[in-house]
Task: inverse folding
């Protein structure tokens, strides 16, 4: 893991969870695995602080643990889980767009809790929905918990919610050895039962009446580790499924990938073509492996029948759109057969690669200009090109082309390959070919995005701290005004409003605009990070096993 990536993880942990959790989390990120005693010794924290921090990080799905060969419990932190914290607003918005307000509040509640029982999440979501109806003085009837429970079932069917892996004990039944390797992953998406929705008093895992499966207080790692209360459920002990639930972020990532593909098709062709692509993505969603670079083959008849009624089109028109998608849209769709009117499959790898290249080209355009972008496209198209050929094909003057070419080379946007005629590599007998190494370029830009994200977070935090006094004053004034509104004291309200001077209001407005701009920068950076990470994950995944 790079230093920049580690710095970003630290800034995220510090902003959302505080200094102590950031110190423990970043120690585990840097050292991969460690015990409580070692963390306390090397970080300078007390053993109690370390235990409390680890409990919170486990609750937030950032830290997992396993039993080492020596029998001690070792903890490890996931850097990806920390980085995904930046995408929480996108997860929540995606749930709202797909399934409505109840799903939005459910996902938000479970994300904030990390791991939660459904009874607690449903109760809090129902209260929030009813409170919002009261605040807007709506005449709608009160929302019942059964409606929210139906939303939970819908989210589980869509694989946006899943059960947490339960803690597995070793052969002797003494220690928790992992926080979850499941025998059948499908059991994590088993639909909730009435028992899952039962309310729980307190924050501990519920006790069971069976003495053989009662919850036991386990002291992990010979007294140095965090105390974990473990319940081995008689129904879930064999499969590793727990009564606690969490958000399945990977399924949200698949939705983001599909949204990016649909948006790219809409930009390159039109809205009808994007509807065809959206229908194909919906049909292949549950039938294609998440890591597969291609979808399952879909017939023309199947796609035609699955089109929304308001977007229906003739079969001949649909066939033309599919032909356009396979020939004019970077091979997003590939024709693989003739049965059923023609068999088509989505090429996820080529689609994400094209979107990634589009993002890179935008960066080059902003950084070096349109002429450099023309040269970059020449290198992408022709693979290995000499300097003179780049000048000719980009139709640029030699001096200007050479300057831009070597500027991009100096900043590692393009690479250089030497091909010598003789073993001595003499310059006069060596060919120099410029090319684009897309994987290395994506990695470099990913690091730059991480660094930019760190800078934006630090700048936003500094902006807030510099105006902390004004913000506190504004909060106090707003609280007083709210209480006066409740009492109906209009004259006193005007006097309180004057406590904030015009110059202070102007400063607060300026700070709000700056903060909003920085937050938008964070969202856009995370979108670029997601595209680059997705492309690299498809490129660097191991090849399929030989049959």
Result:
């Amino acid at each position: 893991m790079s230093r920049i990536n580690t710095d970003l993880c630290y800034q995220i942990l510090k902003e959302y969870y505080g200094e102590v959790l950031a110190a423990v989390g970043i120690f585990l990120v840097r050292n991969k695995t460690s015990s409580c005693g070692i963390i306390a010794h090397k970080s300078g924290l007390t053993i109690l602080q370390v235990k409390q921090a680890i409990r919170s990080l486990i609750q937030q799905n950032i830290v997992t643990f396993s039993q080492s060969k020596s029998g001690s419990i070792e903890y490890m932190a996931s850097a990806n889980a920390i980085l995904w914290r930046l995408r929480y607003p996108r997860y929540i918005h995606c749930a709202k767009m797909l399934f409505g307000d109840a799903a939005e509040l459910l996902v938000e509640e479970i994300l904030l809790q990390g791991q939660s029982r459904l009874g607690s999440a449903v109760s809090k979501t129902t209260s929030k929905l009813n409170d919002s109806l009261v605040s807007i003085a709506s005449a709608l009837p009160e929302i019942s918990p059964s409606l929210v429970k139906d939303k939970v079932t819908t989210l589980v069917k869509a694989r946006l919610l899943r059960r947490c892996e339960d803690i597995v004990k070793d052969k002797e039944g003494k220690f928790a050895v992992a926080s979850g390797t499941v025998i059948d992953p499908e059991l994590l998406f088993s639909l909730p039962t009435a028992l899952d929705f039962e309310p729980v008093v307190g924050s501990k895992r519920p006790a069971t009446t069976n003495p053989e499966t009662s919850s036991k207080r386990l002291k992990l790692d010979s007294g140095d580790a965090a105390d974990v209360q473990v319940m081995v459920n008689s129904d879930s002990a064999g499969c590793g499924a727990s009564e606690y639930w969490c958000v399945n972020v990977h399924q949200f990532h698949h939705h983001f990938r599909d949204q990016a593909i649909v948006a790219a098709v809409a930009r390159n062709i039109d809205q009808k073509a994007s509807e065809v692509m959206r229908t194909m993505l919906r049909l292949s969603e549950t039938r294609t492996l998440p890591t597969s670079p291609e979808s399952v083959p879909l017939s023309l008849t199947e796609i035609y029948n699955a089109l929304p009624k308001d977007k229906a089109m003739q079969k001949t028109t649909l066939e033309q759109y599919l032909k356009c998608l396979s020939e004019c849209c970077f091979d997003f769709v590939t024709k693989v057969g003739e049965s059923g009117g023609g068999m088509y499959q989505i090429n996820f790898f080529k689609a994400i690669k094209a979107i990634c290249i589009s993002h890179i080209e935008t960066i080059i355009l902003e950084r070096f200009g349109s002429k450099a972008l023309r040269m970059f496209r020449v290198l992408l198209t022709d693979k290995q090109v000499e300097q003179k050929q780049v000048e000719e094909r980009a139709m640029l003057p030699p001096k200007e082309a050479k300057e831009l070419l070597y500027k991009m080379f100096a900043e590692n946007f393009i690479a250089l390959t030497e091909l010598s005629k003789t073993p001595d590599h003499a310059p006069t007998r060596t060919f120099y070919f410029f090319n684009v190494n897309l994987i290395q370029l994506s990695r470099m830009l990913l690091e730059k995005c991480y660094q930019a994200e760190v800078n934006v977070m630090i700048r936003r935090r500094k902006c807030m701290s510099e105006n902390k006094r004004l913000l506190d004053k504004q909060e106090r004034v707003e609280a007083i005004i709210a209480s006066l509104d409740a009492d109906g004291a209009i004259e006193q309200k005007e006097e309180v409003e004057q406590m904030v001077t015009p110059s202070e209001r102007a400063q607060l407005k300026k700070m709000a605009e700056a903060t909003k701009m920085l937050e938008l920068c964070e969202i856009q950076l995370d979108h670029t990070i997601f595209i680059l990470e997705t492309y690299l994950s498809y490129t660097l995944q191991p090849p399929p096993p030989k049959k």
